[in-house]
TrEMBL record:
It comes from Accipiter nisus (Eurasian sparrowhawk). Residues 518-712 form the Rho-GAP domain. Residues 174-332 form the PH domain. This is BCR activator of RhoGEF and GTPase. Residues 1-157 form the DH domain.
Length: 735
């Protein structure tokens, strides 16, 4: 085995020496010409280009001449360690080798570094087959140590520069941006790591690590930036269908993630062995990776002018815009050349160059890192300045949750202006969020004029920016004004945070004359109705003009409109229906949600809430149905009739899912906690006042359970009423 390993290095040394000879061949005539009146290169240039090449040749020639006869006269006791020791101790400095590569850009001059890598591998192999008792063993170990130190110092030299190799004209090919992304390949979602270099866009896959080997990338494809386009080259090319993952599957993953996090915390408190925690962390990593793979569904397409198109799936328009901007900016100033050898070297260097080392999972966060905010963030989008010309403008807000960003709110379109004054307030629910992003768009009403990107008509992004949600700064519960600058545009915002334990308190109203915060039985008795007037009015208005509104009940309404409607209903204003007809339908949906959220006791009652939570956890479907229906029919009459009225309405909303994008599951997510969350005395809120912001994952589990209860009733075909007493209640309503 030792002889075979050494025969291999002899053959490659022979090739290397012939390369060095090829370099030395023109050196003598060039040196001679440098002293004449018409030099091809100056003496200084020759000195730079051929710096230390003769010395390198001598070192390797001596090594080859020493090794060749020993391999020829091979015996088990033959020693070669001294030759390797001498070779690696004569290596030039890493700084010299790197300056050589960067100065000339010649692929040949990368060889010295390559040789050390090769020698290191050979030394590993030799040591593997050299008994510890063999006199060569300590010598080979010493040579290996020297060459490994050399390689790590090369890496230290490269890393600060964040560059891998040269492009033509001696410019550096640098890594500008990299990130994990989901690629759509023949209908399947694949996790990729994409790298944007100064002259190309490279899509790689992380190879599976086998037996402790270091990370390696496999290049799937690349596009030179000079050939990259966001427009489809061939209009006839079909836009691939995006396979959507049902919300209930995504939620099941979130439930699992919350449960595993809970288990990890429990194990840490119990000081159990680290093996258990490691196993749980592995499970958590698998679940979070799966969620990140399955959740994005916004297409980001790149096309190669000379060939294929590729589709990525992204969860945030902000990120999609960022990638496009970075690529377009670079396209203005790049040219391109890449050989297959360079491509391989570039792909190998990605491991060293990557800036994003981990998929954005909570598993990769340190224990002392902020887990993010849980609760409600009120955001007022005041106004914006800095637009060059008058246009129709609106903003959207995104926050992160479970490692990716989702769109949470959208202002109205402010028409024909350079200084929009939206002054709209939104309430956004935060689930472990750390960042708030804002995007400003120009609304395009004439779709034919718009250039198609990604094969779909889009409104144009005018600017984007973000702020970090700092738990310390937001702790004091007061409004905080801030200005976000983006591409010359400035947007004024105010933000206020309410942590979960404060935001989820059901606050009984002090006065019993209104409807908000007043028990449902008191309101229906006063109104002589089976279902409160506010519920009927809101549902009627939404069914009249909101059934096709995208994100109805999910998208926040303007807080000031909701408060105005709340006040009007509380004083029984006769003009409330006129007010509603003039308001944005999302404000009406927000008013209905607020009514149920502010009930002093949930619609499903404090008394029965624990039973519903236990019933939904039953695994036998027959027992579950019997339990859930009996519990439902045990609700007080106003609660039951109001719930059945709302249930029918929500089912009708979900029938238009293809237009409004609100599935039964989406609606259950919005309304579950609102209808079921118990009032303060029965809630399982952690009573630790020192942690008002970062709530535990048991919260998430409780919320998920509330969602599941409502979803169960939404998915039942019909709700039978077992006794005639109930029958008469249901069918004698005025509703």
């Amino acid at each position: 085995m030792r002889k075979w390993v050494l025969s291999g290095i002899l053959a490659s040394e022979e090739t290397y020496l012939s390369h060095l000879e090829a370099l030395l061949l023109p050196m003598k005539p060039l040196k001679a010409a440098a002293t004449t009146s018409q030099p091809v290169l100056t003496s200084q240039q020759i000195e730079t280009i051929f710096f230390k090449v003769p010395e390198l040749y001598e070192i390797h020639k001596e090594f080859y001449d020493g090794l060749f006869p020993r391999v020829q006269q091979w015996s088990h006791q033959q020693r070669v360690g001294d030759l390797f020791q001498k070779l690696v101790s004569q290596l030039p400095s890493p700084k010299f080798l790197l300056s050589l590569i960067h100065l000339t850009g010649a692929a040949l001059l990368y060889k010295p570094v390559d040789r050390v890598t090769r020698s290191t591998l050979v030394l590993h192999d030799l040591l593997k087959h050299t008994p510890v008792s063999h006199p060569d063993h300590p010598l080979l170990q010493d040579a290996l140590r020297i060459s490994q130190n050399f390689l790590s110092s090369i890496n230290e030299e490269i890393t600060p520069r964040r560059q891998s190799m040269t492009v033509k004209k001696g410019e550096h090919r640098q890594l500008l941006k990299d990130s994990f992304m989901v690629e759509l390949v023949e209908g399947a979602r694949k996790l990729r790591h994409v790298f944007l270099f100064t002259d190309l866009f490279l899509c790689a896959k992380l190879k599976k690590q086998i037996g402790g080997k270091s990370q390696q990338y496999d290049c799937k494809w690349y596009i030179p930036l000079t050939d990259l386009s966001f427009q489809m080259v061939d209009e006839s090319e079909a836009v691939p269908n995006i396979p959507l993952v049902p919300d209930e599957e995504l939620d099941a993953m979130k439930i699992k993630i919350s449960q595993i996090k809970n288990d990890i915390q429990r194990e840490k408190r119990a000081n159990k062995g680290s093996k258990v925690i490691e196993r749980l962390k592995k499970k958590l990593s698998e679940q979070e990776s799966l969620l990140l793979l399955m959740s994005p569904n916004m297409a980001f397409r790149v096309h190669n002018r000379n060939g294929k198109s590729y589709t990525f799936l992204i969860s945030s328009d902000y990120e999609r815009a960022e990638w496009r901007e970075n690529i377009r900016e670079q396209q203005k100033k790049c040219d391109f050349s890449l050989t297959s050898v360079e491509l391989q070297m570039l792909t190998n260097s990605c491991v060293k160059l990557q800036t994003v080392h981990n998929i954005p999972l909570t598993i990769n966060k340190e224990d002392d890192e902020s887990p993010g905010l849980y609760g409600f963030l009120n955001v007022i989008v005041h106004s914006a300045t800095g637009f060059k010309q008058s246009s129709n403008l609106y903003c959207t807000l995104e926050v992160d949750s479970f490692g990716y960003f989702v769109n949470k709110a959208k202002t109205r379109v402010y028409r024909d202006t350079t200084e929009p004054n939206w002054n709209e307030e939104f309430e956004i629910e935060l689930e472990g969020s750390q960042t708030l992003r804002i995007l400003c768009y120009e609304k395009c009403y004439n779709k034919t004029k718009l250039t198609k990107e990604d094969g779909e008509s889009t409104d144009r992004i005018m600017g984007k920016g973000q702020i970090q949600l700092d738990p310390q700064a937001l702790q004091d519960k007061d409004w905080q004004r801030t200005v976000i600058s983006m591409n010359g545009v400035e947007v004024k915002l105010s933000v206020k945070f309410t942590s979960r334990e404060f935001s989820l308190k059901r606050m009984p109203s002090r006065k019993q004359t209104g409807v908000f915060g007043v028990k449902i039985a008191i309101v229906t008795k006063r109104e002589r109705s089976k279902v409160p007037y506010i519920v009927r009015q809101c549902v009627e208005e939404i069914e009249r003009r909101g059934m096709e509104e995208v994100g109805i009940y999910r998208v926040s309404g303007v807080a000031t409109d909701i408060q105005a409607l709340k006040a009007a209903f509380d004083v029984n204003n006769k003009d409330v229906s006129v007010m509603m007809s003039e308001m944005d339908v999302n404000a009406i949906a927000g008013t209905l949600k607020l009514y149920f959220r502010e009930l002093p006791e949930p619609l499903f009652t404090d008394e029965l809430y624990p039973n519903f939570a236990e019933g939904i956890a039953l695994s036998d479907p027959v027992a579950k149905e019997s339990c859930m229906l009996n519990l439902l029919l045990s609700l007080p009459e106003p609660n039951l009739v109001t719930f059945l009225f709302l249930l029918d309405h929500l089912k009708r909303v979900a029938e238009r899912e293809s237009v409004n994008k609100m599935s039964l599951h989406n609606l259950a997510t919005v309304f579950g906690p609102t209808l079921l969350r118990p009032s303060e005395k029965d809630s399982k809120i952690p009573a630790n006042p020192t942690q008002p912001i970062t709530m535990t994952d048991s919260w998430s589990l409780e919320v998920m359970s509330q969602v599941q209860v409502l979803l169960y009733f939404l998915q039942l075909e019909t709700i039978p009423t077992p006794d005639s007493k109930r029958q008469s209640i249901l069918f004698s309503t005025e509703v």
